[in-house]
Each structure stands twice: as C-alpha cells, then as structure tokens.
Amino acid sequence: MLDVLAVVVPLYALIVFGLLASRAKAFQKADAGLNSFVYWFALPAFLFDAIVRAPSGAGLPLSLFVVAFVVTLGYSAAVFLISRGLGLHAIAGRLSLAAGYGNVGYFAFPLILSVLGPEAALPMALTSMVHNLIFMVGYPALATAGKPEPGRLKKALLKALPCNPAVISVVLAIIVRALDIEMPAMISTPVSLLSGAVIPVALFAIGLSLGPAIAMVWRRGSSLWAILVVSLAKLLVLPLLTWGAAVLFVPDPTGLLTAVLVLLAAMPTGATTFTLSQEFDGDGHLVAAVVAVSTVLALVTVSLFSILMS
Fold this sequence. Notes:
Elements: H1 2-21, H2 31-53, H3 62-85, H4 92-100, H5 104-116, H6 121-145, H7 152-160, H8 165-178, H9 185-196, H10 198-219, H11 221-249, H12 256-265, H13 272-281, H14 285-309
C-alpha cells in the first residue's frame, strides 16, 4: 500500500497544482494550448522514445499481445454500444475512451516495477504500446467518422493514420529500430526532453480542466452517474475480464505475464484521454472528470489488485 501511495501521491500533486492554477486569470484558457502541445509534440516523442529504447520482444508469447488487444478493444466497443443503447449518443465515444484507456504511461510503469520487480519491464513496455495504439489510432477514427460532414470516413482515416502524430512517431521508431540507426544527440536529446514533458504537462492540464468539469457534473446529474459507473467499470470490470482471458490463453496463468496484463488493465483512466477528447471532441471536461474520479478510487482498487498479483 505504501509503495502505491509513493507513486500515486506525487502525480495527484500535479493535478492539484493545475486545479489551483485554474483560479488565476492567466491560466483560465491555458488548457487548450497545453493539450495541443502534448498531442502534437510531447506524446509522439514519448512513443518514439519508448519504442526505440524498448528491449527486444523475443521470447514473449503472442497470446500476451492478443489478450491485451482483443480484451481492451472488445471491452471499449461494448461500452460504446451500451452507451448508445442507453441513449447517451453524444457522449458514447468519450465514455468508451475513458472506460478503456488506462494510465499505462504515467502510473503503470513506476507502480508495476515497484510491485513486480524489474523483470516486468519488457512485457510491460511492449503490451503498453499495444494498449496505446488501440486508442491513439482508433479514437481519432471513431471521433472523426462520427461527425456529420461530407467525406467523413476519408477524413477519419486520414486523421487516424498518416496525419496522426502518434502514428508517424511509431512508424519512424520502427524504421529506426529495423535499420539499427543510432540517433545523434542533436535529435535524441530534444526527443527525450519532449518525452519527459508528457507527465507533468498532461496532468497539469487535467487540473486546469477540473473546475469546468466539476461544474458540468453538478449541472447534469446523468453525467455524474455515467462518470461513476465508467470509473468503477474501468477499475474493476476491465482487469477482471483481462484476468479471465489471461488464465485461459497466456502460458503460466498465475505468473508474471498475467500479473502485468491485469495491473495494466487496472490502471485508472489515463491523462491522455483528456488530450484526445479535447482534440477530437472539442470538450474534454467529461473525460477529465472520469480521470479524476477513477484516479481517486484507484488508491483502493489498484492496491487490491497489486496485492493479489504480487
């Protein structure tokens, strides 16, 4: 429990700093600019740096990645369809994003390493890339395709694939690794600096958005229930489904690989969901509220899953 708090509390502090700063006039409209910085610069640099530095995936079973991909994507699709079935058409995409996209980059890495040890680094790094790409590619396509504009499918594909900064960074990183290119310091250094900005800037931007998010929740009672349900589903349903799939399909179902999959799935909703929602929906307040609520509740749920998995 103390290990979990040691990781989570400093991250909460960044959100609180943003919330406090939102009271100042100079920061009241800063979240959009910070969000664009994260989406177009810091996050692509983070993905590029992670892939280039990741160790080889040789020896890991294919089922590890299949479970991470199929369960996460299937679960998010189910949340989307259920939300639409309940009449929440306007926010179905955002609820699906918030219910599936966990904080694998900001919380999972330090927390899982502290719980499972350094041997978890390789499977964690590679499965988290699968997790990120599902939403970094899938959500822009979903959000853009859902807009009533001429040629929306074509626009969705263009925005989700060749024009998506995350996709570009991943393709470049794969090329660099495949050709075994040694990055010169004049390139690798600024990339690393931008990569390191993802955590503080994204969490600070969430804090800036919390004031309007809280006001929106109080104005719309149905959103409050949606936020609570999605938060609990993210923290309990997704990791339990992942656990069940891992027991059935991953070798050594009680071992390290299963623990990595379950803890990755148990992470609270990630700060990047706010970035994506703000960029493609024009309103990240609902998702920011889910991030805040799920992160608070995760103090209990992640601790429980950490104890079980360790």
